[in-house]
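Whiteboard transcription, Tuesday session. T.W. wrote the structure tokens on the left side:
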């Protein structure tokens, strides 16, 4: 049996692609390696997805997306895709257990936030440790937070958080920021942001929630403690592109390059969501990408002689 569309990844991008594709009567299979919702399912409270005046839990939104896609006939399989053969007319998707054939593939494997690698980080995730200022910043209104990192995201996060927080520390391991000049200018003039140079986080402290971070100056080796209510780790995101390295064109940061219709350079291979090179990585933009990718798949599958 040959599917019309196989979607790799069951985050908001993948499930929206599945919904649109199945609703367009394409024979659709979505394969997810862990649990429905991807990164979204790690968010307890989401207050910026349109249509939900009261915040919605990430897992609940994921279940709704999955059920909606299934309602229109999408098949969902929980297994890991370990190999992709994308260049042939009929493409092959290999999971740990099965080999599938398909006319088109939508890549929606998302990304994983880089972690500091500290023991307390996992335990306090969602209880003061966050990887997304746009998502969680408003929970820290009038509080003190620290942002870890020195690139565009970290500096942007520090500026963004200063609009709602009482005080923001920006902790960077070097003596100069990597962010673009305009962001640096903004942060240097921002009275609410204090930059802590040459420093790395050694530990996160707190019983029920984050209470402080322990930092070490890498030049003097001096240890100190910053009392804070939240820590935003902004040291980058790793796109899950291992399966397509060397096959699909990637940006400098390792994200998949697509056109505005989510097409890669390989016919009938689309990419959507956080795995793609773009400016804003959120649930709403992932879902929008997924809809567009499915529409592109529909048009190309209809017109191909495969
Ligand atoms: C802690 C946290 C809080 C956030 N809060 C918000 C918020 O409040 N509002 C908001 O709009 N955004 C928020 N975001 C961002 C949002 O979750 C992401 O932008 C969005 O989930 C991206 O969707 P996606 O489908 O592209 O990728 P992902 O959500 O990353 O999903 C990709 C899926 O692909 C699967 N996958 C990867 N490789 C394979 C493989 N080989 N085989 C099978 N499956 C595979 C993964 O297991 C994963 O389930 C948050 C992110 C985090 C981490």
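and on the right, the sequence the group agreed on:
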């Amino acid at each position: 049996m040959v599917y019309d569309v196989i979607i790799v990844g069951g985050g908001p991008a993948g499930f929206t692609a599945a919904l649109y594709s199945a609703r367009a009567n394409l024979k659709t299979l979505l394969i997810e390696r862990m649990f429905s919702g991807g990164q979204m399912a790690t968010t307890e409270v989401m207050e910026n997805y349109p249509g939900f005046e009261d915040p919605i839990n990430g897992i609940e939104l994921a279940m709704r997306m999955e059920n909606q896609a299934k309602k229109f006939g999408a098949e969902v399989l929980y297994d890991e895709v370990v190999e992709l053969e994308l260049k042939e007319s009929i493409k092959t998707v290999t999971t740990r257990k099965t080999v599938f054939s398909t006319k088109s593939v939508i890549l929606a494997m998302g990304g994983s936030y880089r972690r500091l690698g500290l023991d307390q980080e996992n335990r306090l995730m969602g209880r003061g440790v966050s990887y997304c200022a746009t998502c969680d910043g408003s929970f820290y209104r009038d509080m003190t937070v620290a942002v870890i990192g020195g690139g565009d995201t970290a500096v942007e996060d520090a500026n963004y958080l200063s609009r709602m927080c009482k005080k923001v520390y920006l902790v960077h391991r070097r003596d100069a920021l990597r962010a673009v000049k305009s962001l640096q200018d903004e942060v240097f003039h921002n009275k609410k942001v204090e930059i802590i140079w040459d420093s790395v986080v050694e530990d996160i402290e707190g019983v029920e929630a984050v209470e402080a971070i322990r930092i070490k100056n890498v030049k003097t080796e001096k240890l100190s403690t910053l009392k804070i209510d939240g820590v935003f780790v902004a040291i980058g995101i790793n796109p899950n592109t291992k399966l397509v390295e060397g096959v699909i064109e990637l940006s400098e940061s390792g994200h998949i390059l697509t056109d505005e219709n989510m097409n890669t350079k390989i016919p009938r291979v689309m990419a959507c969501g956080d795995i793609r090179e773009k400016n804003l990585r959120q649930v709403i933009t992932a879902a929008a990408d997924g809809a567009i990718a499915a529409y592109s798949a529909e048009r190309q599958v209809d017109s191909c002689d495969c």
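Someone added at the bottom: The longest helix spans residues 283-303.
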